[in-house]
Design goal:
about 20% strand; 2 domains; 6-stranded mixed sheet; Monosaccharide ABC transporter substrate-binding protein (CUT2 family); 8-stranded mixed sheet; about 350 residues; alpha/beta; Rossmann fold; SBP_2_dom; 14 strands; signal; Peripla_BP_I
Length: about 350
Amino acid sequence: MAFATGPYAARRLIQTRKARASLRLAAKTLGAAAVCAAAFGVSGMAQAADAGKVGLGLPLLTSPFWQSYNNYLGVYAKQMGIDILAPVNSNNDPAQQITDMNNMVNLGAKGIVVGPIDSAAISRALDNAAQKNVKVVAVDVAPTQGNVAMVVRADNHAYGEKACKYIGEHVKSGKVVQIMGDLASVNGRDRSEAFRACLKQYPSLSLLEIPAGWKGDVAASALDSLLTANPDVKAIYMQAGGVYLSPTLQTLRRKQLLFPAGDAKHIVIVSNDGIPQEYEAIRKGEIDATISQPADLYAKYGLYYIKAALEGKTFKPGKTDHDSNIVQLQPGVLEDQLPAPLVTKQNVDDKNLWGNTVK
């Protein structure tokens, strides 16, 4: 390459030296700014980086309840300005959920909102998240081990008690069937134990149980066999309408045991979830009641608490400003217990119920 000489070249050399000096000064200035931002956390860029993305773990999507919850996530994330990763469905597989959560961490998620499938198994994923300083909020199911910023959940003991009391008030005597959830989940255990304990207050009622693990086909097959041996069943408690409603009604219809409310042969049925399909079944007289799990509030406050955790906020036990109570489950683990109303023929058309807002 040839080099230029003369007055023009001299001027270019001076300009070049000035430009290099300016660049060195700018670099020093930017470096100092970066150090200040790291030390004091006042940089807008640093805050954006700290906030990061939020991963969303769904236990399953075959249930209308979780489908509705999933739809609410996008709505509330947008309202709160939360940058979310695409929701991941673990298909009711605890091992897959652990893998999914670890993948979210590897993708750079700073926070995760997850509905645990197995209360104990998820501790492996929680431990991994804690090691990477990733905050986690558990929704619907409380883990038995591991660190979470908050558990967002309704009082599942109350689910079992409300179902039991409704049946106890409407059935004078006879056999009652409890179709249970997965007993590896604290939800399944809480509902089962509460219903079982409450039913002891009604000595004229006898209890039959079906461990169905949140699986509709398992519930249907077991109920079919149970009804063959016990055609005189008077009431059924389904712990999850999202997975048990259709199989249960189909089984009763096939065995010619599905009679509308008001008929002397009607089997009293109480469910859990509060999905639109349950409300329609109540209106038809096929079932009598359900306890409405707040899918909308699970999404809203799951995101609310993960945002708060990423901002360094903490909470204490006590009443909240959204008609719930924060309780301490175990040392260092808090749960926001959201309200879950009983829905019957009398209030099934209440427009404030989330199940009546789903299009």
